[in-house]
C-alpha cells in the first residue's frame, strides 16, 4: 500500500515508530497528485514547496520525540479558509489574487499540531453549490466516475480524499457541503455542532449556518481531526465556551441499546431506490450491532429547503457586500464609484452567487422582511424543536445523506431548484445547529458510493462518531478505492 | 439665502435629537485597534476593522459598560437581552458593506434628561440608547480621479442617544445637548470633544400650528457638530418650514444637510431616495445578556451627576443657584472648585474668582481648566493672604495674574514682587500727609461737601504706595484727618 492511501491513524503509527519519514508520505501524495490531478481537478493550488519545508521540520521533531497529533500528516484545506501568505480565492474570481495576512483558527490549530498543507481545494464559488460546477475556475470530478460531480461545495476536498491526493481534508458545511460530497465520493464527512469549531478565518457564506469539519477516509480520523480543530476560540463569539472532549476515546465503544431514530420524512418519493436499499441495509446492520431502531417524525422537514434558502441567502447578501473592489481582490474601474461597484461585482461574481445575493437582498428588503426573513427564522425555530422533541426519544437519528448518488455534469445546472434539492436531507441539520456525519454505506448498481447520515444532539459528536465507527468497522465500504 | 420673516408665534416646532457619542474606550468596539485620534491614516487598522474575508467581530466589554453606565445615569431601562444588527449599504468608508449597529433590541430603553429653560425645569424623554461602530473617512484631495479612504475611525465605538420629540425650541435643543455632554463627561464615557467629532448630532424637526395635535411632516437634519450649530440649524430649518407652509406649500419628508459656513440647510435626499438598510440580526455576535450583578456593580460605581452636584454645592457651600450651575456644568471645573474649597478657600470667594478672573484669563488664551497654570490650592492660599491682611483685594488681582503667568503660589509671588500690604499705620499716615499737603484745593472742596473727592484721596495714596496700603486703614486715616 502506498503511503498516500493510508489514514492519519495508520501513518501516525509508522511515523512515531520512525519506520517512515514525512517527506516519503509527501513523495507519494505529490506523485499521486501528478498522476491523477489532470482528471480530478481537486485542487486550486498545491503548496508542494512549503509542504516539503514543513516536512523537514516535522522530521526533526519526530527524531526528538516531540511529535504532535498531526506531525508529518499531509492534509488538504478547502479554499475558503484563510491561510497566511497563501492564495485564498474561495473559488471566486473576485478573490482571484487575495493572499490573507492572517491564518484561520482551524488551520492555525492544525499548524500547531505540525500538519503539512498539501494545497487548497476546489469548491463552488463562496461555497454556494452542490457540485463544484459553480467554481469560477473549473469543476472537480468524482474519482469514481469522472463524468459525475463530486458533490459540493467541498467537492475538491472530498475528491482529494477519495482519490488519495491527500490523507485527509478540511471542508465547510453550510447546508450539507461536507456531508453531501463525502457521500458522493465515498468518504467520511463530519459537520460538527454549530459553535464547536471556530469560524475565524472561514470566508463567510451564511454566518449562522457555516461550520468547518473534516473529510477523511475513516471515522477515527474524523474524530482525531475534530480534537485538533474544535474548542472555544476567543476570536469567534459564536464558538462554544469550555474544553473540547477527546473524541478518539469513544471510538470502539459498543452501541448496544443506542436508540436510533428513523424519520419517516426522509424516506420519500424522489429518494433513489439504490440509496434507499443501502441505507435500509445499514440500519439493519446497526440493529445487528445492538442499536434499537425507533420510528420518529420531524414534521417540519418539508419547509427546510425553503427556510434555508431565505436565511442563507439573506446572510450571504450582507456577507458578500465587502467584495466591492475598494480594498482587495478583483476591481473593474468605472466612470464613477457606482459604476466601479457594479462592474466589479458583475464581473467578479458568478451567476449562482449573484442569484443568491439577489434573493437575499430581496428577502431582507423593507416590506418583505416579515414575510420572508422573520418567517424563516420562526420556521427555523420549529425545525430546531422537531429535533429537540425527537432527541427526547432517541440518541441519534439515521437518514440517507443525499437523495441520489453523484449526478452527471450539467444534469442540474439549468435547474437551480433541482440542484438545491440535492441538499434536502442535510439542510435541516444546519438550521438546527446539530452535528451530523456521513459514512460510506454502500454502492449503487452503477458502482457509485452511497452515504449514511447520522445526526446527533447538540455537542454530542461522541454518539454519532461512536455509531459511525461501529458501523464502519463492521462493513467494508470504506475500504474500496476508485480505479483511476 | 435669507428667509423672509414670518409670524413664528402661530407655530411650534417639534424636535427630536439623535446624538452620536464616541465612547471613551482605548480600543475599538470589535477589535483590538487603538481609538487614538489624529494618527497617520490607516495606521490603526487590522483585518477585522478593514473587513477582510472570514474575520469576525468580538465585542469590547468596556463599550457595553459605557452604554450601561450612561443608561443608568439617565434612568433608562437596561435591556436584559439586546443584540446587534447589520445596517447594509455600500460606501468606501464602510469596509464590510454594513455597519454593525443595534436595531430592534437596543441596550437601553427609555429614560430622560432634565434641562432648565427660563428657570423652569423641563424633562426631555429618551427613546433609546444603542451601540454601534463608526465608519471610516473618505478624503477627497489631490485632485486625481480618485479619493482616499482612512479606516482609523472604522470600528470606533459609538453610542447613539435618541431623544423623544419633546424639544420645542432651538434653545431647548442646545440646552439638551449641553446637559447631555455634561453627563457624558461626568461619567467619563465620552470626552465630548466636538471638534474631533466625539459628539455629533442629527435632528428631526417638524412644525405645526399651535394647538394642533397631529405632527407635521418631519425633516432630518444631518451633520450638526457644535452647540452653536444646533441652534442655528434648527432656527433656519424651522423658519424655512414655516415659510413653506405660509406660502401654501407642503413640507417634503427628506434628509437635509446643514452647511455651517452658510448657515443654511440643503436637501440631501428625499424619502423616495432613502436607503433601504435591510437591517437584520448580526449573526456573528451573540446577544448581550448583562448579569444583574454586573449592572449593579456599574450602578454602585456611578459618580455624582451634574444636577446632584449642583444641589449639593448650593446646600453645602451656600452658593447661589447661578454659581452652582456654572461650576457644575463641567466635572473638571467642579472638581477644581471643590479642591480649592477643601484647601481652605472661602466657598463664595473661590466661586467669584473662578467665574471672574480665572474664566476671563482662560478664555483669553482659549484654554480649558485642565491646562490652567494656577492650582486650586494656590487660589485658596491667595484667598488666605487676603483674609489675613497680607495683601489687599486690589493687589490680589496682580498676584493672581502673576500666579497665572508663572504657576507659582501666592506666597512666592507676594514675596518676589514685594506686594505685601502696608499695614504700618505710621507709613500710611506719612503717605496720607504727603498727599494732603499737595491737595489744599481738593480739601477745601471736600469740606464744602464734595464727598466724591474721597476717592481721589484714596487713589492718590494708593498711587504713592503702589497700591499696597491697607485700604481699611487708609480709609480710616483719611476720614480722621479730613474731619
Description:
The complex is a heterodimer of chains A (484) and B (483). Chain A has 15 helices and eleven strands. With 484 residues, chain A is an alpha/beta fold. Chain A has a domain at 3-257 and 435-479: Amidase signature (AS) enzymes. Chain A has an eleven-stranded mixed β-sheet, with helices on both faces. In chain A, strand 10 and strand 11 (449-455) form a beta hairpin. In chain A, helix 2 (22-40) packs antiparallel against helix 3, helix 5 packs parallel to helix 6 and helix 7 (219-229) packs antiparallel against helix 15. The radius of gyration of chain A is 21 Å and the shape is globular. The relative contact order of chain A is 0.14. The mean pLDDT of chain A is 97. With 483 residues, chain B is α+β, with helices and mostly antiparallel strands. Chain B has three domains: 8-297, no CATH class; 304-417, no CATH class; 425-482, Arc Repressor Mutant, subunit A. Chain B is 40% helix and 18% strand. In chain B, the strands form three sheets. In chain B, strands 1, 2, 5, 6, 7, 10, 11, 12, 13 and 14 form a ten-stranded mixed β-sheet that branches. A three-stranded antiparallel β-sheet of chain B has the order 4-3-15, with no helix packed on it. In chain B, strands 8-9 form a two-stranded antiparallel ribbon. In chain B, strand 8 (137-139) and strand 9 (148-150) form a beta hairpin. The longest helix of chain B is centred in the middle third of the chain and has 20 residues, at 227-246. The radius of gyration of chain B is 30 Å and the shape is elongated. The termini of chain B are far apart. The model of chain B has no long low-confidence stretch (mean pLDDT 92). Chains A and B meet through helix 9 of A and loops of B.
Amino acid at each position: 500500500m502506498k503511503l498516500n492511501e493510508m489514514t492519519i491513524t495508520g501513518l501516525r503509527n509508522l511515523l512515531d515508530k520512525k519506520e517512515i519519514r514525512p517527506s516519503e508520505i509527501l513523495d507519494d501524495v505529490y506523485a499521486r497528485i501528478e498522476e491523477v490531478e489532470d482528471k480530478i481537478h481537486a485542487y486550486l493550488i498545491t503548496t508542494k514547496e512549503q509542504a516539503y519545508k514543513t516536512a523537514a521540520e516535522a522530521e526533526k521533531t519526530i527524531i526528538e520525540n516531540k511529535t504532535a497529533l498531526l506531525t508529518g500528516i499531509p492534509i488538504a484545506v478547502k479554499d475558503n479558509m484563510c491561510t497566511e501568505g497563501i492564495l485564498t480565492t474561495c473559488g471566486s474570481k473576485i478573490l482571484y489574487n487575495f493572499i490573507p495576512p492572517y491564518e484561520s483558527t482551524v488551520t492555525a490549530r492544525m499548524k500547531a499540531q505540525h500538519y503539512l498543507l498539501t494545497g487548497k481545494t476546489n469548491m463552488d464559488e463562496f461555497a454556494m453549490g452542490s457540485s463544484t460546477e459553480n467554481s469560477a475556475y473549473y469543476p472537480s470530478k468524482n474519482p469514481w466516475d469522472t463524468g459525475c460531480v463530486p458533490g459540493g461545495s467541498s467537492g475538491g476536498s472530498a475528491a482529494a480524499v477519495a482519490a488519495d491526493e491527500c490523507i485527509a481534508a478540511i471542508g465547510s458545511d453550510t447546508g450539507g457541503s461536507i456531508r453531501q460530497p463525502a457521500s458522493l465520493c465515498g468518504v467520511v464527512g463530519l459537520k460538527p455542532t454549530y459553535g464547536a469549531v471556530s469560524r475565524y478565518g472561514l470566508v463567510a457564506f451564511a454566518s449562522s449556518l457555516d461550520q468547518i469539519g473534516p473529510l477523511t477516509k475513516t471515522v477515527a480520523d474524523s474524530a482525531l481531526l475534530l480534537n485538533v480543530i474544535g474548542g472555544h476560540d476567543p476570536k469567534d463569539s459564536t464558538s462554544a465556551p469550555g474544553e473540547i472532549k477527546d473524541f478518539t476515546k469513544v471510538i470502539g465503544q459498543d452501541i448496544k441499546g443506542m436508540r436510533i431514530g428513523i424519520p419517516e420524512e426522509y424516506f420519500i418519493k424522489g429518494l433513489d431506490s439504490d440509496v434507499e436499499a443501502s441505507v435500509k441495509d445499514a440500519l439493519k446492520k446497526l440493529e445487528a450491532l445492538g442499536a434499537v431502531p425507533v420510528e420518529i417524525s420531524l414534521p417540519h422537514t418539508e419547509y427546510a429547503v425553503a427556510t434555508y434558502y431565505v436565511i442563507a441567502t439573506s446572510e450571504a447578501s450582507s456577507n458578500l457586500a465587502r467584495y466591492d473592489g475598494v480594498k482587495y481582490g478583483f476591481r473593474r474601474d468605472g466612470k464613477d464609484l457606482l459604476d466601479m461597484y457594479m462592474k466589479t461585482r458583475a464581473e467578479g461574481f458568478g451567476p449562482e452567487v449573484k442569484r443568491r445575493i439577489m434573493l437575499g437582498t430581496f428577502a431582507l428588503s423593507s416590506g418583505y422582511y416579515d414575510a420572508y426573513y422573520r418567517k424563516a427564522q420562526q420556521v427555523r425555530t420549529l425545525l430546531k424543536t422537531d429535533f429537540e422533541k425527537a432527541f427526547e426519544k432517541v440518541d441519534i437519528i439515521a437518514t440517507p445523506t443525499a437523495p441520489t448518488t453523484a449526478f452527471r455534469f450539467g444534469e442540474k445546472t439549468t435547474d437551480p431548484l433541482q440542484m438545491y434539492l440535492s441538499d434536502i436531507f442535510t439542510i435541516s441539520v444546519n438550521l438546527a445547529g446539530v452535528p451530523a456525519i456521513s459514512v460510506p454505506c454502500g454502492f449503487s448498481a452503477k458502482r457509485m458510493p452511497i452515504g449514511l447520515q447520522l445526526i446527533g444532539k447538540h455537542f454530542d459528536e461522541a454518539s454519532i462518531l461512536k455509531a459511525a465507527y461501529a458501523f464502519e468497522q463492521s462493513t467494508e465500504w470504506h475500504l474500496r478505492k476508485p480505479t483511476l | 439665502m435669507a428667509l423672509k420673516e414670518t409670524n413664528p408665534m402661530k407655530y411650534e416646532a417639534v424636535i427630536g435629537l439623535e446624538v452620536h457619542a464616541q465612547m471613551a474606550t482605548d480600543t475599538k468596539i470589535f477589535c483590538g485597534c487603538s481609538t487614538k485620534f489624529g494618527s497617520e491614516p490607516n495606521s490603526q487598522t487590522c483585518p477585522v476593522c478593514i473587513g477582510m474575508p472570514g474575520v469576525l467581530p468580538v465585542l469590547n466589554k468596556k463599550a457595553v459598560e459605557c452604554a450601561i453606565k450612561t443608561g443608568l445615569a439617565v434612568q433608562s431601562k437596561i435591556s436584559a437581552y439586546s443584540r446587534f444588527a447589520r445596517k447594509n449599504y455600500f460606501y468606501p468608508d464602510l469596509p464590510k458593506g454594513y455597519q454593525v449597529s443595534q436595531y430592534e433590541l437596543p441596550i437601553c430603553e427609555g429614560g430622560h434628561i432634565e434641562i432648565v429653560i427660563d428657570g423652569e425645569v423641563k424633562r426631555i424623554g429618551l427613546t433609546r440608547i444603542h451601540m454601534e461602530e463608526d465608519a471610516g473617512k473618505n478624503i477627497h484631495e489631490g485632485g486625481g480621479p480618485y479619493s482616499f479612504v482612512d479606516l482609523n475611525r472604522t470600528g470606533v465605538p459609538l453610542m447613539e442617544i435618541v431623544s423623544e420629540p419633546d424639544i420645542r425650541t432651538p434653545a431647548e435643543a442646545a440646552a439638551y445637548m449641553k446637559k447631555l455632554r455634561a453627563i457624558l463627561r461626568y461619567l467619563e464615557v465620552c470626552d465630548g470633544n466636538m471638534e474631533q467629532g466625539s459628539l455629533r448630532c442629527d435632528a428631526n424637526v417638524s412644525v405645526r400650528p399651535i394647538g394642533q395635535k397631529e405632527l407635521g411632516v418631519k425633516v432630518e437634519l444631518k451633520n450638526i457638530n457644535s452647540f452653536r450649530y444646533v441652534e442655528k440649524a434648527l432656527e433656519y430649518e424651522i423658519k424655512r418650514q414655516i415659510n413653506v407652509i405660509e406660502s401654501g406649500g407642503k413640507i417634503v419628508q427628506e434628509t437635509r444637510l446643514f452647511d455651517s459656513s452658510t448657515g443654511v440647510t440643503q436637501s440631501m435626499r428625499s424619502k423616495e431616495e432613502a436607503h433601504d438598510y435591510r437591517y437584520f440580526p448580526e449573526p456573528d455576535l451573540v446577544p448581550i445578556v448583562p448579569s444583574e450583578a454586573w449592572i449593579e456593580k456599574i450602578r454602585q460605581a456611578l459618580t455624582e451627576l451634574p444636577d446632584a452636584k449642583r444641589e449639593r454645592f448650593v446646600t453645602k457651600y451656600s452658593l447661589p443657584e447661578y454659581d452652582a450651575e456654572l461650576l457644575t456644568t463641567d466635572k473638571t471645573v467642579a472638581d477644581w472648585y471643590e479642591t480649592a474649597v477643601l484647601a481652605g478657600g472661602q466657598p463664595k470667594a473661590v466661586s467669584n474668582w473662578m467665574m471672574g478672573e480665572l474664566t476671563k484669563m482662560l478664555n483669553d488664551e482659549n484654554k480649558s481648566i485642565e491646562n490652567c497654570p494656577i492650582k486650586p490650592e494656590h487660589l485658596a492660599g491667595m484667598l488666605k493672604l487676603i483674609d489675613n491682611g497680607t495683601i489687599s483685594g486690589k493687589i490680589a488681582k496682580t498676584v493672581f495674574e502673576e500666579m497665572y503667568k508663572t504657576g507659582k503660589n501666592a506666597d512666592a509671588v507676594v514675596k518676589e514682587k514685594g506686594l505685601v500690604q502696608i499695614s504700618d499705620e505710621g507709613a500710611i499716615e506719612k503717605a496720607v500727609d504727603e498727599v494732603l499737603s499737595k491737595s489744599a484745593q481738593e480739601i477745601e472742596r471736600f469740606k464744602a461737601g464734595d464727598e466724591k473727592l474721597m476717592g481721589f484721596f484714596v487713589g492718590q495714596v494708593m498711587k504713592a504706595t503702589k497700591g499696597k496700603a491697607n485700604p481699611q486703614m487708609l480709609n480710616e486715616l483719611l476720614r480722621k484727618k479730613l474731619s
